[in-house]
Recover the amino acids of this structure.
């Protein structure tokens, strides 16, 4: 039986900024481009901003109208790539069979490592814990079981 996990960072770009600057934790953070350069859409919103209806791909002007006191931050792709690399390295500690799907998602095949790290659920918990403690970003882990 194959055992596949999907590790997905939550509100990744906003979470990276909150990890880099802990004073942003618990605050509505919105990462978006520059409207003057025609890139003024929301790329990520923290949970606190999402509670007010701010969503990915929303125009910045609309996000501002929903929550003028939100903290608007321009994207920093170099930092996102650094965090992504650190996260992938943590995931690879649980199996060499990791397939990054995007900058904030990766599949991991744990079929051959369950005897080392425990059940699917236990491995998912360990991955979440390490990413939070070592990188400062929350993630969700989906568990898929395929086979006979």
């Amino acid at each position: 039986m194959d055992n596949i996990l999907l590790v997905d960072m939550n509100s990744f770009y906003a979470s990276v900024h909150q990890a880099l600057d802990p004073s942003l934790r618990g605050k509505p953070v919105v990462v978006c481009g520059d409207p003057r350069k025609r890139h003024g859409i929301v790329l990520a919103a923290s949970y606190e901003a999402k509670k007010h209806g701010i969503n990915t791909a929303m125009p910045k002007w609309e996000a501002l109208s929903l929550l003028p006191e939100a903290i608007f931050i321009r994207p920093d792709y170099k930092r996102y790539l650094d965090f992504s690399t650190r996260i992938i390295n943590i995931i690879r500690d649980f199996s060499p069979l990791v397939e990054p799907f995007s900058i904030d998602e990766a599949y991991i095949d744990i079929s051959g490592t369950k005897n080392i790290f425990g059940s699917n659920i236990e491995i998912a918990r360990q991955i979440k814990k390490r990413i939070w403690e070592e990188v400062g970003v929350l993630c969700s882990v989906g568990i898929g079981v395929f086979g006979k």
Q: What stands out?
A: The first helix runs from residue 12 to 20. The chain has two domains: 2-10+77-146, 13-73. The longest strand covers residues 2-9.
